[in-house]
Design goal:
about 110 residues, mainly beta, six-stranded mixed sheet, 10 strands, about 0% helix
Length: about 110
């Protein structure tokens, strides 16, 4: 199993970023997938989930209306579109396979002016 995140970086408050997670080594289309983040000095925080087919989506309250999770099962890729970002979104973002045993290396997102 390999999960490789990309798309992180520095963004100004109110700005947008799109994270991607390239999955390999398993049948991506049969697994729920999650985004989890860890802010500096804090614990892990679940952000969003998407079912295997992409037909149901769930968000943490603090990102509802700002973040959009999606997936392309043909490309074995998970996405997180982040809009209207604020400083509280600064964190290391991980792509996680259902079961929480398989994690990517994370991509750093920093929101700062």
């Amino acid at each position: 199993v390999q999960l490789v995140e990309s798309g992180g970086g520095l963004v100004q408050p109110g700005g947008s970023l799109r994270l991607s997670c390239a999955a390999s080594g398993f049948t991506f289309s049969t697994y729920w997938m999650y985004w989890v983040r860890q802010a500096p000095g804090k614990g892990l925080e679940w952000v969003s989930s998407i079912t295997a087919a992409g037909d149901s989506i769930y968000y943490q309250d603090s990102v509802k209306g700002r973040f959009t999770i999606s997936r392309d099962n043909h490309k074995n890729t998970l996405y997180l579109q982040m809009d209207k970002m604020n400083s509280e979104d600064t964190a290391l973002y991980f792509c996680v396979r259902d079961g929480y045993k398989d994690w990517g290396q994370g991509t750093q997102v920093t929101v700062s002016s």
